[in-house]
């Protein structure tokens, strides 16, 4: 048995139980399951599922390829549109994307399980390390990509396909962005994120430089001087603060940091969690932090969100998952101060009840205290425009046009760091890919000026 | 990447997938869309004589049967040949061929069985730039009542005669499309060959009544209270078509005659099966009519991926590869002994294998072992018939395992012989006994 001691301690559960808890959230489909499920697809015309997919994967075609025994062909159909189709198959909130649009919902309220079928196909290809793309002849162009998350990787891969040389700079030790450091562990088991980075970069022509931070190790001017074009896919490196008393107390941590530590631990058994945890926030990060804390053996985990259920960013499915894992979600509570004990460590959190008055959030005057020896903050991430003052921002994020062009010539951006970012892996992939196409068009147009008619 | 370019009697197309002569190829609008979607060629909807075109019924012309989940398995139709004016069709064909020079465009023709009619239409068709002609001797309804279509296809002498006229009056390759509504497909194929045809294509649709409206006591589709037999096609007819293709491919008289395989092709796998049984390419109708032209993308990628996986480089590497392995029953090896084996990890314990074997076959599968629901093959009873494999709902759950020579067949108590021995020499065969005496 583990321990029920107060304080942040590792080993609350026996290692075997932790391992079981962090197993694949959705087991991969077996061949039989995949055949039965793929048979359910109607091969719709102008398929609504395809329209709902931010990367526009040809879903009816890939599902039909699975049903005819051509899983590798299905994988290629997926990768043609989304080179991170493997990760997306695991992390996409399909219930609000493709599967929500599936016509089978109308017929029988049960969509085709597109995500799991996508995983079946991409797993088959990645198991064999089947590479579908080769680099075009070298174009002589060089592109600097900042950030090796989904946006940067998708951009780099598409550029490499076109024969360009890509240098991928990332501040972190490993490539992958939040795939490596953020996604819940049970969604990407067996080191999938780093295996996927290897699979994607196997095309060649992508030089990854880890530990290289824009604004610290080099400037944007360095990049524009060094490369023919630049893509910024830096995600959201900053986090919002609570701005309450006691925030610096021991036991208070940003949820993303907690998750990153957890993700980097091979066994998870060295990650300490409190006996009673309060998670502040209402999004995917709050849910992931809370659920994973429970899986590590925290006795009571409460998510406190300052608005109602309908305002939560976490999807219905995520909320249900949290409930199923024993997380309590409480609404209409806003942190007032962190309560600390003798040694300056957290002992609880005081919260104010909130309400909407004429559409504005106010406190009711009533307060409550929840005992806690750990508080995780998940109240949103922010873009840190380090060294990017020359680029046009809006509401703290990079402003781009539909193709991903920023206000600065020769600089593109995509993913969470742009104004149109959607905090979705799949959208980051789409934006990275489309920016690569735009970069390619621009560079090639310069390389071969339009032929002038000769009389 | 496998090279799936197709050369069929000199007619070239980027892939072996042609649309069969039918509604999908009735006009330029459809054919242009088909080519955009990737089809390698089309056989234009059958043209009739100059003059007022035929008319179709104005009510339902289709009926169908469905599998689970309303998947369309068989389609039945009472449509006739094109109901559009000949000149309009010819004009559109010419334009489409000009727009799509790399695709195959074949004209399907059905005119009365007189030399003048054929002589008259062939130059008009030739003028369109079509790559070849297909003689529609197959339509089993409507047109056959007028002495055309299947009415011609059922009389080998007529086939030979018309093919000969066509070979005489046009330089275009002639593909003779056969009807399956006969007893032995080899006879019309041989007749076509005698007439000098460049190829045969088959099958056209099969005579059928697809279902009956039990409230109105009339066959479906019901047109104003009455119905008529129609032509059956789609996945359900594939086995019949495969057999007919194989019969022609292995008949010494027609051996080597190019075949365009038609009937139920829905996936790349169906197409590959036609090819290995001797077809030089395939034609598709129902699959396109069910799912739209985009379906060809699955066929193209599937065929090409399979060829890559198996190391087949061109279509020539696979065409006819299974023909030598199609034989008569009497030559099957009676010393080949197989037993069913159930993969207990995959078995979901539905019991279908047991009841099929128990009620209707050889009582060779348990249902209970030591008081526990358990399905297992008893090798001392199993005759290796394969019924259980076909009724099991789980793919690959039951497999047939052959016994190695020298091992004991628990059912017969005999040792498996290493040598090939067939019915022709079997002691129970009266003919073999006679020969020996
Ligand atoms: C906890 C959590 C769970 C999530 N779960 C899901 C989920 O289940 N499904 C889903 O679809 N989405 C999920 N998301 C959102 C998703 O992870 C992001 O939308 C996606 O990763 C954005 O991709 P990106 O490439 O824009 O940025 P990121 O993945 O954040 O990658 C940005 C990269 O840029 C690097 N970088 C940052 N600044 C610099 C700099 N100055 N110099 C150099 N490199 C820099 C970073 O190190 C990082 O590697 C989750 C997010 C979080 C935080
Ligand atoms: C509605 C319909 C109309 C058809 N019309 C013709 C025709 O005009 N000429 C012809 O040769 N075959 C015609 N056929 C037969 C098809 O070309 C094809 O031989 C048959 O449908 C089998 O192929 P499938 O199983 O892929 O549908 C028609 C079939 C259908 C369903
Ligand atoms: S909407 Fe559903 S049934 Fe239609 S193509 Fe997409 S997955 Fe298949
Ligand atoms: S398929 Fe089109 S033409 Fe035919 S009955 Fe339906 S709507 Fe009418
Ligand atoms: S039919 Fe197949 S699944 Fe059902 S009991 Fe037999 S072996 Fe098992």
From TrEMBL, chain A:
Pfam families tied to this protein: Fer4_20 (PF14691), Pyr_redox_2 (PF07992)
Domain FAD/NAD(P)-binding: 143-432
Domain of life: Bacteria
Gene3D superfamilies per the UniProt record, alphabetical: Alpha-helical ferredoxin (1.10.1060.10), FAD/NAD(P)-binding domain (3.50.50.60)
Coiled coil: none
Location of the Dihydroprymidine dehydrogenase domain: 20-129
Any one GO molecular-function label of the UniProt entry: iron-sulfur cluster binding
InterPro entries for this protein: DPD_II, FAD/NAD-bd_sf, FAD/NAD-binding_dom, Helical_ferredxn
Name assigned to this protein: Dihydropyrimidine dehydrogenase
TrEMBL record, chain B:
Gene3D superfamilies: 3.30.70.20, Aldolase class I
Key words, A-Z: Iron, Iron-sulfur, Metal-binding, Oxidoreductase
InterPro entries given in the database record: 4Fe4S_Fe-S-bd, 4Fe4S_Fe_S_CS, Aldolase_TIM, Dihydroorotate_DH_cat
Role noted for this protein: Involved in pyrimidine base degradation. Catalyzes physiologically the reduction of uracil to 5,6-dihydrouracil (DHU) by using NADH as a specific cosubstrate. It also catalyzes the reverse reaction and the reduction of thymine to 5,6-dihydrothymine (DHT).
Molecular function via GO: dihydropyrimidine dehydrogenase (NAD+) activity; iron-sulfur cluster binding; metal ion binding
Catalysis performed (reactions): 5,6-dihydrouracil + NAD(+) = uracil + NADH + H(+); 5,6-dihydrothymine + NAD(+) = thymine + NADH + H(+)
Recorded GO CC terms: cytoplasm
Similarity comment: family membership: Belongs to the dihydropyrimidine dehydrogenase family.
EC code(s) of this entry: 1.3.1.1
Subunit composition and interactions: Heterotetramer of 2 PreA and 2 PreT subunits.
The name this protein goes by in its record: dihydrouracil dehydrogenase (NAD(+))
Native source species: Xaviernesmea oryzae
4Fe-4S ferredoxin-type domain residues: 338-371, 373-403
PROSITE patterns named among the record's database cross-references: 4FE4S_FER_1, 4FE4S_FER_2
Any Pfam family matching the protein: Fer4_21
CDD domains: DHPD_FMN (cd02940)
Transmembrane segments annotated in the record for this chain: none
Uppermost EC category: oxidoreductase
